[in-house]
Amino acid sequence: MVKKTKRKVTDADKKKMIDLFKQGLTMTKIADQIGCSRPTAINHLKKASLK
After folding, report:
1. What domain count does the chain have?
2. Is the pLDDT of residue 33 over 90?
3. pTM for this prediction
4. CA-based torsion, 41, 46, 49, 50: positive or negative
5. Does the residue 5 lie in any domain?
6. Spatial distance between the Cα atoms of 22 and 5, rounded to a whole number of angstroms
7. Which helix (H) or strand (E) holds 27?
């Protein structure tokens, strides 16, 4: 199993997460498209008051 490297979630990534969430994508699909973990996507959307 290859371990993913951590990277910083940018403001553009956060905007894309919000857009994808509004389109109805699942947290798993959002995380896959952004390149982050599912919990990271959830945390950022909670901070944006969307989740």
Report:
1. 1
2. yes
3. 0.80
4. positive
5. no
6. 27
7. helix 27-34
Query: How big is the chain, counted in residues?
Result: 51
Q: Which residue range forms the structural domain that includes residue 28? A: 11-47
Round to whole Å and give the CA distance between 3 and 51: 28
2: left (phi over 0), alpha (psi -120 to 50) or beta: beta
The answer to whether residue 2 is domain-embedded is no
In a domain, 29, yes or no: yes
Each residue of 6-31: pLDDT tens digit?
Answer: 778 999 999 999 999 999 999 999 99
Is residue 35 a part of any domain in this protein?
yes
Only one residue has tokens 């982050």, namely 36
Token duo for residue 4: 């993913």
